């Protein structure tokens, strides 16, 4: 269960393409880094848009595309460009007024066999505070969530670190390229009651009990010495009653 | 658009406030709550650090017994000295709280179990190697189970149950004997019951299936037989009215039910006739066997709607073809042969029950609202008669404009023909008593104004009871002779009408002959707010029942106010300082008042002491309401489906106030919010009820004082647009009322109260105020942020395609929940921190595909602020109904496993891991790492009706799940059993942690039924509220019945037991004291003697 949440935090340089694979049903493979995420011969891509405006009204522009490659190894790439000088300034200004950095993806199915009837109706949006985007030097983690059929139901974005401490980002280079980890996640299978293992264990224990006849001894057989000792002690104390201790103490 | 989902959930209002009491930062320091609370707060804060540190658990747990005793002593000492300064006790409390804490932090938190478990684990250590005891966890649990049982002498001490029957549809007084005191009722809730007409208590009650399957179509009472048709003509049942036993039950042929009636022959009633859409059947009254069944001719065109028998053995079925003609068929009672069949033109007739009655010897009287005329027709005569038309105007009567006249007749004995007298209702308050004499209708008496009329019969006498208004606040009921229309002397009863209660709707009169042969009577008045009131003749209310309480929709518990004297003292602190001298004077005056109150109290004690104990009344009234020492007594504010609000004292169950909201639609949804608690004297507490019409979505606010039920003078905003969501912010205005935000369908926000101060605060908090909306019809969850100008902006959106799954439930966390320990100490002494996100939402979905192989139940954990999907899981081969509880760091849900055909529980727990990301404050915006999610499932051997978790003041006490079962039992299931860390293979570390080994089946122990034999029928909801004692949680289960009790999930660790031996402990103390004195003296003497030697 927890394996799904493995997060690959390796950062790559310019076109930071980091992949993390989670097959829709819980198995988690290790990521494999590729140099170039733009080969889309077998997979297809989900456009990823972003928006950061001073007046907080969303005006989405293209940020990149998440490319999914079908086949035995489901791999996810994010190909995206750099922020322009203008964008960088806007982002910093938005961060200064505690504005939002929003992203959106279209609602669509990620199943490659359903490419034909892949029509989009509406978008899924998520946000992060622009200041945390700036302060984390554009290192973000984007996760696409799908339902059981592989249809996109949600997108989430977090930055690492996530806090806004008001740290000034002077270096323009820090805000040029995204350092993004992208992953696709489907629902995990919730466990059903584990009966088989329990029954097996019960049987083992019954067997063990059967093998060990010492366990079967009766109460008296096991503790006869304690009972006898107790009885002797009681008799001894009752016979030694007459000499009362109180008088001697008073002495 | 279905906005069903919109009502749900508390939106986590301000991000970043550690609302779950992580560091005790949000502890409400309510004044007057005593030293105990403050003491514990201090303790809690002090022990924060050690409890997180590993390595202490074992020592404390080992000495569990001793620690427990220390608890008893120190808490006792604090409790009793609650009036004094408690500083000296702080040390001891700290120690106790620490001791309490350890298992909570270390194990799954059940202190109650910890002692027992300690004993068992110790036993295991004594015999290492043998797994004795471990393979039989049930044995362990059995011991543990005893902890929760109630002792016999505790029954009814702090719990009560009230049983209801619901809105009455049919009511009959049992009249076969003079001394009879039974009342037979059938209700909308599919219940047949018998009430004691002297006290209003239930003699017996039978609860049938809810819904249309158990719907009672009709109830007929004759002698001691109550015959009813159930489930749209599915079953015919006969009950014995004395003891409520079932005489017989017959399964009827299919077909929708139309009418039923007794068939009398030769002055006795032997048969019951049941008319269905296309058939009539005759059954013996004695054993229910079918005598004959016959098809009705032309069943597809004629609507058969009535059956009539005049007592001469005729069975007459009446049908109507709307706007065309009337069909009359007479059957032979012996073999069901059609004796006569005829049709009479009646082009004005559309429905028989609405406009026709049978009076006299089989004469049908109908009223035509169009031409305003009466028609008469002899049913049994041979000649093919036309209907005889009589214009109402020709009788010198006028129909109120636009009013549809109604006829009321009476047939006192089914073996005899109806009486020739009948009522004609001509207007809302206008009735006329008419008589049919040889085919001629003549008026006997006009009643105007008169709202309600009814007939009653005793012996040979039949009387008419008429209710007419006296003034605005009262009505009078009088009897009139049915034969002549003469008023009977001394028969007036005055009924007082409260302004905020419902109007009378129906009268049921029980008439009887007095010794002097005059007629006496009792009358049962049914009001539109479902209340039943029985009046005796001089106008005395014998009893009243509030049947609206059979359908409680939502409730809250509100602290009672302080006593007047306490409030006076509090008020002194609340006022602004205005100089030294006035303050001194004020202090003196308030102390004078205190002295006065104390003297009055002493005087009362003295006065009461002289009276015999039985006469000393200890009734709770609205005047003497006051908070008790431990805040165990609260005001239950209940909102019922009928629109009536109740204030009920939680200790005794007495209804202290009621308020009927007149204009509530029957399909309205309610949301009750406590805007201001009692803690802000002199401001009165304030509750707000949002009433929302489900169809239009328009809402209204009713603001009231929850203690007295009075409508507040504060004028709420008028809501012109449909309300989508409401949320109560932790912000307060200058009068300490929490701010309520209402979001309309244009996503505009209305604040209440909306003073300048509030708006300013809102502007400041706007950027951290988020809310979410759920549209289950489109599967859309959306998040919004408040803007400074009170508009909103969409910030996130999650859409679940409705073709795959539909949202059935969205559960947030309760705003008043506190979590005390932030983590769990594991076996290796490291701490596993809980993921305590106050903004987390648990979204439960069900698949639209209901095939048993492909259906599933999905759970999504979504952060309500950022819209981030924290976890997504599907339970395959499962379907609803899903019940879900979300609290602390866990979600428990219950579903039906379609493959194994059983109910299963699943628990999800979220942990941050062994390190906290930011331990000081939680912010949804700054949690980059997803939590670890653990999940485990169990088989539960029963279906469930509802589920809730216990709640305590500071969250130190371990949690239990309260599960309402369809059997009416309320199961208190320790959360310890629902722990995904229960190991399948026992290791040393899991033993250290007190984890119960995994067993797939969840036990149901009868000792865990908190309501022992007090079953709660059709339990629909459970409400839990913390009390002033940390160990105690108040529980109210409601459904058809209401049951209130207290639960102690970790035993009463902070209270001395009832049977605590004060004498022994004090005699031992004094004995020891004197012994030391004496021995000291003796030792001195001895020393002196030795010195002299």
TL;DR?
By secondary structure, chain A is an alpha+beta fold. Chain A contains 5 helices and 11 strands; from the N terminus they run E-E-E-E-E-H-E-E-H-E-E-E-E-H-H-H.
Your description of this structure?
Chain B: Residues 1-23 are annotated as: Disordered. Chain B: This is ER membrane protein complex subunit 1. Chain B: Pfam families: Beta-prop_EMC1_N, EMC1_C. The complex is a heterodimer of chains A (251) and B (1093). By secondary structure, chain A is of the alpha+beta class. Chain A has five helices and eleven strands. Residues 1-41 and 243-251 of chain A have low confidence and may be disordered. In chain B, strand 36 (644-649) and strand 37 form a beta hairpin. In chain B, helix 9 packs antiparallel against helix 10. Mean pLDDT of chain B is 79; it is low at 1-147. Chains A and B meet through strand 7, strand 8, strand 9, strand 11 and helix 3 of A and strand 46, strand 51, strand 52 and strand 56 of B.
Tell me the layout of helices and strands.
The complex is a heterodimer of chains A (251) and B (1093).
Chain A: E1 19-22, E2 28-29, E3 44-51, E4 61-69, E5 75-80, H1 85-96, E6 100-106, E7 123-129, H2 130-135, E8 139-146, E9 152-159, E10 179-185, E11 188-189, H3 195-211, H4 219-239, H5 245-250
Parallel strand pairs in A: 1-10, 8-10
Antiparallel strand pairs in A: 1-2, 3-4, 3-6, 4-5, 6-7, 8-9
Chain B: H1 35-46, H2 48-52, H3 57-62, H4 64-80, H5 90-106, H6 111-126, H7 137-146, E1 160-162, E2 168-173, E3 182-187, E4 191-196, E5 202-207, E6 216-222, E7 225-230, E8 235-240, E9 246-251, E10 257-265, E11 268-276, E12 279-284, E13 290-295, E14 303-308, E15 314-321, E16 325-332, E17 338-345, H8 352-355, E18 356-359, E19 363-368, E20 373-378, E21 388-391, E22 406-409, E23 421-427, E24 430-437, E25 440-447, E26 452-458, E27 461-471, E28 474-481, E29 493-496, E30 504-513, E31 519-527, E32 531-535, E33 541-546, E34 552-559, H9 564-574, H10 580-610, E35 634-640, E36 644-649, E37 655-660, E38 668-676, E39 686-693, E40 699-704, E41 723-732, E42 738-744, E43 749-752, H11 756-765, E44 770-775, E45 780-786, E46 792-799, E47 805-811, E48 823-825, E49 831-834, E50 840-847, E51 856-863, E52 869-876, E53 878-887, E54 890-897, E55 902-913, E56 932-940, E57 946-949, E58 960-964, E59 970-974, H12 988-992, E60 1021-1026, E61 1033-1038, E62 1042-1047, H13 1062-1092
Antiparallel strand pairs in B: 1-62, 2-3, 3-4, 4-5, 6-7, 7-8, 8-9, 10-11, 11-12, 12-13, 14-15, 15-16, 16-17, 18-19, 19-20, 20-21, 22-23, 23-24, 24-25, 26-27, 27-28, 28-29, 30-31, 31-32, 32-33, 34-35, 35-36, 36-37, 38-39, 39-40, 41-42, 42-43, 44-45, 45-46, 47-50, 48-49, 49-55, 50-51, 51-52, 53-54, ...
